[in-house]
Design brief:
With about 220 residues, the chain is mainly alpha-helical. The protein is built from 10 helices and 4 strands, in the order ββαααααββααααα. The longest helix has 17 residues.
Length: about 220
């Protein structure tokens, strides 16, 4: 646990700077965290998006995907990037005090993702995952793991297309070379995808979809 302070108010945050308890979020936190996310002043446009996420979380208990936010606010990828340059989750969601880890499980059949080990589709291999179903050790990832995860995310028969693999390969190669996970802006630019095309590929979203299939996660 870490602490973040702004104007003599201190908040408990995790290792990535996300507010541990969304109920303790306030405008002061948003203004202070915005500066950490390369935004000096929050404009009306920023607040429209922040308030949308806060309201969506209050109603559903879940962090909405970037696709839902952009659609509701009439934003294109370039416009979202201009508003929140450090990324969607590492920028907008962090400022709004809502973490992507906050999510309701949409299908009862997905509850087994919370088990400690995940059976592979073949060979009897097991993979250690965290409570949200993210692979703990990215070096244990293989194609069978990706296909199993794809099947759980309603990708028909777990069959990943050439474009799915292009996204996965970019994520894994970037992580292997730089030990960094690119944000969704960088991924879409590299793979020449707009948000609508990306959503069709990974309807579960960037973190809960593409990253999970690629065997990557942000550290807790």
């Amino acid at each position: 646990m870490k602490h973040f302070s702004h104007k003599d108010v201190t908040y408990q945050v995790d290792e990535q700077g996300f507010l541990l308890e969304p109920k303790f979020w306030d405008i002061n936190f948003a203004e202070g965290m915005a500066k950490e996310c390369e935004i000096q002043n929050l404009t009306t446009e920023h607040w429209d998006v922040i308030n949308f996420i806060r309201e969506a979380y209050a109603k559903t208990g879940a962090c909405p995907t970037i696709f839902a936010v952009c659609t509701a606010n009439g934003l294109r990828p370039r416009e979202m990037k201009k508003l929140f340059p450090t990324g969607y989750h590492r920028g907008l969601c962090r400022i709004a005090g809502v973490h992507y880890r906050i999510n309701t499980m949409p299908f009862a059949s997905h509850l087994h993702e919370r088990s400690a080990d995940l059976d592979a589709l073949s060979g009897g291999k097991t993979y250690t995952v965290d409570v949200r179903g993210f692979l703990v050790d990215p070096d244990t990832w293989d194609e069978s793991y990706a296909m199993h995860r794809a099947l759980e995310m309603n990708i028909p028969k777990g069959e990943l297309t050439e474009m799915h693999w292009k996204v996965i390969d970019f994520l894994r190669s970037t992580y292997k070379q730089k030990k960094l996970i690119p944000n969704i802006y960088q991924l879409c630019e590299n793979c020449q995808l707009d948000f609508e095309e990306f959503e069709k590929l990974f309807s579960a979203g960037y973190h809960r979809g593409a990253l999970k299939i690629a065997g990557l996660r942000f550290a807790n």
